[in-house]
Amino acid sequence: MAEEVKVFGAWGSPFSHRVELALKLKGVPYEFIEEDLANKSSLLLKYNPIHKKIPVLLHNGKPIAESLVILEYIDETWKDNPILPEDPYERAMARFWCKFMDEKCMPALWKAYWIEEKERAKAMEEAFEHLKTLENELKGKFFGGETIGLVDIACNWLAFWIGVIQEVAEIELVNGEKFPILCKWIEEFINYSPVKESLPHRENLLAYLGARREALFASTSKQIIY
Amino acid sequence: MAEEVKVFGAWGSPFSHRVELALKLKGVPYEFIEEDLANKSSLLLKYNPIHKKIPVLLHNGKPIAESLVILEYIDETWKDNPILPEDPYERAMARFWCKFMDEKCMPALWKAYWIEEKERAKAMEEAFEHLKTLENELKGKFFGGETIGLVDIACNWLAFWIGVIQEVAEIELVNGEKFPILCKWIEEFINYSPVKESLPHRENLLAYLGARREALFASTSKQIIY
């Protein structure tokens, strides 16, 4: 009997892209179910009742939420083309940098691009520091060494989404002069065939994020949601 | 040659307690190095230059930061008495609940106890919801089943620190009437011998957290740091 592998996601989300990319790297066929984030399906709410968020991986009827948790599950379930290293210390380092991306880097960067101008300088400084930390960490072609690994997948947002956000926000924080190593990694990553095939269309993402930015600045709450 | 296993921690921190408890459950001897959090040692800053926080596990010269990352490292390095289940789906669920504790439950609970009275009602409501979610999740004696596992260790704060915080704040959110299943788990957990032997002295923690609460309410910033 064929396996049931479904991804509940959204085309413009780096978090559901992480899951799709991992499945593609493993060669696991899956069905992608596009969620309307303004009107979430009853299935999504059933499968992720705690956070009510995409992505959810459904594997033979069992749902898993939280992209980093899903990535580890994928690596433990389909063992070909491992995305985590074998050595416990290297595995710990990979997990450390994924947490750093999600808990420090991404919130700081998003804030730097999305915050109102008068408060931007401090946010830009913090984002710059985090990016320098990542720049110094990158030793090989990819964070995973010669092939794409967990940290590269978790940094997909930095590789692709940031470029679009910079264009929308008309702010250039990441460029080859300030971050030559990261920018070289971005080139390698987005041109790596399974990545290239799975990224959203740039023009669509540009329109989508442009509209979200306009809506944010037009609203009174100014609450940044990414 | 004997292994070098050192824990840089603080006696009153649930995060360094997690690491100590995991090592005790595994029967791994270690040296505990008490950090003065107001004046961190140059070794701590060297071993955790990104976050500059405890706990850090030093294993044969290699440092690992972030308590949940350390717990996975411990389980992969010393294989006796596993703290994560074997099955990939159960492992994913354990990781999901640990993230829930750290990212949702703990910040909401801390806020509920520590926020000024006029803003407390909403915070209490959110904390209550998260605790109900946890209460509904607990099916066996422990989150890990018949023995203590990753989620139990990650919930150590709820088992022991909450009781002290409730006494300091004179607020009772967790009790046997509202959360009978969680309170039964708390009893089982804190009386489990490796836990009991590794918890801080209650009176010391009471004095420490009482002083911190007083300092917070006396300061103008009211920034909650836990």
Automatic annotation (TrEMBL), chains A, B:
Q: Name any one GO molecular function.
A: glutathione transferase activity
Q: What is its EC number?
A: 2.5.1.18
> Organism's domain of life?
Eukaryota
Q: Kindly list the biological process annotations in GO that this record carries.
A: glutathione metabolic process
Q: Which PANTHER family match?
A: GLUTATHIONE S-TRANSFERASE, GST, SUPERFAMILY, GST DOMAIN CONTAINING, GLUTATHIONE TRANSFERASE
* The family this protein is said to belong to: Belongs to the GST superfamily.
What name appears for this protein in its UniProt entry? glutathione transferase
Per the UniProt entry, what species is this protein from, by scientific name? Answer: Tetracentron sinense
Q: Which lineage ranks, top first, belong to the organism behind this chain? A: Eukaryota, Viridiplantae, Streptophyta, Embryophyta, Tracheophyta
